[in-house]
Amino acid sequence: MAGALSSCPKKGDPCSEGSPGLRKVASTSCTLDCPDTCSLLILEGDDGKLRLAGDPDHPFTAGFTCRKSKGFLRRLSSPNRITKPLLRRGKVWKPVTWETALNLCAEKIQHYRSEPASILHYHGEAAKGVLHQAARLFFALLGSTEVRGSLCDAAGYVACMADFGSRKNHDISDLLNARRIVNWGKDLSRSSVHTAGIVAEARRRGARVLTISPGGDGNEPYTDAFLRIRPGMDRFLAAGAIKVIEERSGVHENILMHTHGWDKFLEIVRKQSIEKLASLCDIPVQAFEEISDFYSDAGPTATLIAAGLQRYLYGGENVRYINALALISGNIGCPGGGTYFHLHSKRNLNLNWTRPPERKPRRKLLMPTIGRDILNAADPPVRMIWVNASNFVNQAPESGLTAKAFEAIEFKVVVDAFMTDTAERADLLLPCALMLEQEDIVGSYLHSFVHFVERVQSPPGESRSDYWILSELGKRLDPPVNLPSPEECFRASLQSSSLSISLEELRARRYVRSNEPPVAYEGLRFDHPDGKYHFPTLLHEEAPAPEGFPYRLLTLIRREAVHSQILPEDHVSPPGVWVASDHPGLRDVDLDREVFLASPLERIQVKVNILDGLHPEVVIYRRGDWMKLGCGANRLIPAGLTDMGGCAPFYSAYVRLANE
What we know:
- There is one protein chain.
- By secondary structure, this protein is α/β, with parallel strands linked by helices.
- The protein folds into four domains: 4-70, no CATH class; 86-148 and 350-442 and 449-513, Rossmann fold; 154-343 and 520-534, 3-Layer(aba) Sandwich (Dimethylsulfoxide Reductase, domain 2); 551-658, Barwin-like endoglucanases (Beta Barrel), CATH 2.40.40.20.
- The protein has an eight-stranded mixed β-sheet with strand order 5-4-17-16-15-6-7-14. It has a six-stranded mixed β-barrel with strand order 22-26-23-25-24-27. A five-stranded parallel β-sheet has the order 10-9-8-12-13, with helices on both faces.
- α3 packs across α16 (466-475).
- The radius of gyration is 25 Å and the shape is globular.
């Protein structure tokens, strides 16, 4: 079986020829919210400036990294970075000492502590690493309200749990054993440079790649065939392919004996009209035959499931029907097959230390509906909020309502390095250390390696790590909230059945591979109590678009930044949107005048760009830019919940283009 060493083409030693004057000064790991979790070299040039490069000796990173990592040094030294604690006095921010800031926080927590549920802890994923989990322990010990659900991938994650009984992938290098790869919606030009590298290598070895998406994904260099579908209709496309396979050749009994719920599932599929499914997907009927052949021909077919296709109202169903297609065509549990979706980045680490000895029930508010949930919270209402690793006012749907809810809270603390849409509404802003400025241990939600994160430089000014802030705050409380030391957190995290390494060894080696098997569910052994694969029991119809707003808004990822981690100086206003040349809404607007992107909630001035190959009913907006700078697409997106997992259905929003 192909190993991870061959998974990505080596890019060479970044300190060698072509890079004169560069010398390695440190090795560390990326901790951005990105699946690749690259092993990094810190290089210094003759000019004294630092540069980031992928580690050529790392089996997965293989000597290259993405624009997001390479550009992070600009973030560290940005003139807009906050490096002192700031306290709001009316409409003015005043610098204060850490002593003043921490004493004020302690005073407020003591005041609200008799009703701990009145304190809300909002912990995001803007920075990965086990030491960031100390914040969860701190507020669990207080008994505060916490958040649950997800703004990212929970619908797909829970869908896979419902199907397989657990969340596992093949080793990503096993794509090299595939005869065919179906890229179901993943933007390989922006989302994971190493997955793109593996797919490119698989094609060089003879694998064929089929891309299924509404377009606009930059996958042309990574695909052999492309099927453009109406956005959000993925479950119907998979159901049609399943119907064709079942009617044409049936499903092998050796597969069905390892499943639960086949008869009910088959009844659902057989009721579907191929013509209706084709109409829903906006594809020719013969496309179902072609997809069926792609999955059923000799040799294994692997499926990449993008996070985007589960960001619809029925996102969980989208994922479940794709998993079912892979299963019934014989592509689960075998080398070169499998379906790939986000894993849990901390799955190979032991985080039991983040749970207090006495696990008491805590109130939970949902991340996708956080604005509504804060306003509706009672007995007690939310009176204090602590936000770390998140710009949720910007990132949550229905940002206008979320901002209103946040502003209504009596005392608001935000830990951040920039004056984001969330930070600017706080009462107290605490400056935090960023990547390269703190030690940690980090896993990946794509590959099987766990990395030690070396501190490369000190944080600027008075910036401090999240751990330091809470550790110092805890000492000021009565009774105190004491956190384990960083060393204790690290050692406890490595006491995992997936690892066999000491902290000293990890520091010396810099990374270790977990003992995850290279093939998931080999032999069709699944992790439900009955040991079987479970089929979905429903197939929901799609709700119509709201009157007057006929076009689907897709807020897709950026190549140069992770979510809202965009430097203020890099913002472009008005923001750009992309539509097809045959987009019907172009007939209704004059592009020489101001153009607005409007939803039933709000509108934003935009610059319209034409993108060939995009489905005509789609409007693409590259997400993450800030409301305070005239942007922020989440203002247009209503808050809601996906069919499973408590995820945000970002892509179930509808819009129109208008001059007024």
